[in-house]
Amino acid sequence: MKIRRWSAFVLGAVGITAIGWLCLPKPPLLEGVSFSRKVFSRDHELLRMTLTGDDKYRIYTPLDRISPELIQAALLHEDRFYRCHFGINPVATARATLNFLRGHGRSGASTITMQLARMRFKIHSRTVPGKLLQMARALEIERHYSKREILEAYFNLAPYGGNIEGVGAASEIYFGRTPSELTRPEAVALSVIPQSPARRALQADRRFLAPHFTAQVLAGQGTAPEMTTTLDLELQRILERRISGYVASKRELGITNAAAMLVDFRSMDVLAEVGSANFLNKEISGQIDGTRSKRSPGSTLKPFVYALAMDQGLIHPLSILKDAPRSFGAYNPENFDREFAGPIRAEDALARSRNIPAIDLASRLSHPTLYEFLKTAGVDLPRDEKCYGLALPLGGAEVTMQDLVRLYSVLGNDGKLRPLHYTLPHIEEPGVRLLSPEASFLTLEMLGRITHPSLGGEDADNEVFWKTGTSNGFRDAWSASVFDHYVLVVWVGNFDGSGNPAFVGRTCAGPLLFQMIDAMRAAGYVRARPHEPPPGANLKRVEFCAVSGKLATPACEHRVSGWFIPGISPITTCDIHREVLVDVETGLRVPVDDGTRKLRRQVCEFWPSDLLDLFQKAGLARQLPPPFLPGCRVENNARLGKAPAISSPKSGVIYSIRENDDASRGLCLRADAEADVRKIYWFADKAFLGSAAARETLNWHPTPGAHKIVALDDYGRSDSCTVTVQSSDVN
């Protein structure tokens, strides 16, 4: 009878236990746990591990990606009977209870499942109620999850010192490798940390490389747990070291901050990005990203003015431009050095960063203008075109370093605009054409004429095509370059916008740029490669007159080889150099050889009067034609030269005058004429107004109304224009 009762009791207890076991609720395991995100370089080196929502470093790692040595070592140290018990080890629990009752202190009885319960549900297990709750939770976990799932959760939540949780974060931080790549000694070292994480934690290296770059990647990639980026860690370190060393060496000049960005323009992969000289330096606002901050670009946009001008048939590299004082409405620009070079080749005007020629070309651009070009390129210009005016080529609008990198990549990519890439893999886009391949090639050729800042103006580094820029008030110093298959842009300045006379593009940003290029070259990243026209480009190389920039004729003694775009570039034969007959005895010119005098042939330069003025102001002597011998008939010369061209007033313009103010009533009459023209005769509505020397102006006091103006040179050649004059007097 007793046996039967005991059997019934046992069966009842087992039944109740079984029912209780089956009724245990299912607790969450890893549901709701946040994990860190990892950002890797292109070579899969960890750049950054983000903090979780509860400020932990915790990386989700599946069990099959954990080293078997680590699993074995952890089970040996933490729970050697893990695969035999049901969440609680009865023997270990009984021994621990007995020791506690005898006052011998606590002894380890927590299984891996119990440890998981404590970590997952934040249980304070050093009290009796807490320990009982921990055991109950362990039973719940064992009831609903497999041993494999429990072990995986444990390895993802186990403490490894400080705010590091989970073997994924610990192995990356302590050893710089994933849990599957751990060696046996590394696995053993990690396995003992969870027993006493506060005391046994290794020296942790919280990876935080390329902080500005990784911040941008994390902001733009949704919630992806892992990202492989385009960044080359060695190149990143080269740029960082060069900036750090440069700033340290120039601190006495007030140079404390710089930024740089390097892109492979073939793929548009961002290889390196340094947003400031020191991310952690609050004195320089180091956490501001200089690659995304809008700043005045100075003259770094000038190359695109020249590229557009070549595409629109306004110039070729050897075209002669005017670098002279000039007003554009109310805008009176000056050059950086406050001097003027006079007549100058387009390639030299860009290489020497002359302001006036660039502004003049910008004023002549149409469809697209520079503003339209930048808007198409995705540059954020919040105001309309009139607000920027002709100051745009000189830095009149703010752009970002990333904008400049994309724009200079257009030159490297034969005129096509393509987006920057920060992660791998990515889809290769065909790009949007902004410039012709020909104009892009020629613009780089022109930029290749700029001398290296350390060469004292003697030679150019023809492997590097670069341009500098200095913003108004010396607030920003820039240097942008295309070389090999890279685009590199450097900025030096202060994020608060304060100026410094040392912030000059050529002498401040230029040296830093070339330090970076030289370091890349020394590391084997840069190779010399000839700069050749793109395949199938519509380009032709011919001999130009070295003086006029036009196609050479037999009269042109000095010649230079150069490129032009057939059918687009403004190509004409040189009409500056002409052969004339000179009387040997007097040295004066005669129109024809009538056999009465001993004559010789002499090549002279027939410059328009405006360019001749510029040469004279620049102190450059020209070989001008001598006057005609008195008494000679010179009618034939009218067929040889050009008619004068009225430069003031402008045809079709309405001019306002004050009739009661003689000082303001006059309009200046001026015409550009051939070099051998002595006088210009002026007429208004067939009435003779007077005459003036070819390079001088005549003041005219007109009456209100429409007037036809005629300029006649002393060879009978003429030009005319129509203007309207109105009174501006207010009654």
In angstroms, what separates the terminal alpha carbons? Answer: 135 Å
What structural category characterises the helix and strand content? Answer: alpha+beta
Specify the CATH class of the largest domain: Alpha Beta
β-sheet strand percentage:
15-25%
Q: Any guess at the CATH architecture of the largest domain?
A: 3-Layer(aba) Sandwich
**Biggest sheet, open or closed, and with what strands and sense?**
5 strands, antiparallel
Total count of strands: 28
Residue share in helix: 25-40%
- DSSP summary: helix tally: 22
Q: Unreliable segments (pLDDT under 50, ≥5 consecutive)?
A: none
CATH topology of the largest domain: Beta-lactamase
Nearest-integer average pLDDT: 87
The global form is elongated
Q: How many separate domains?
A: 5
Radius of gyration: 40 Å
The CATH fourth-level homologous superfamily of the largest domain? DD-peptidase/beta-lactamase superfamily
Major beta sheet, strand line-up? 7-6-15-14-13
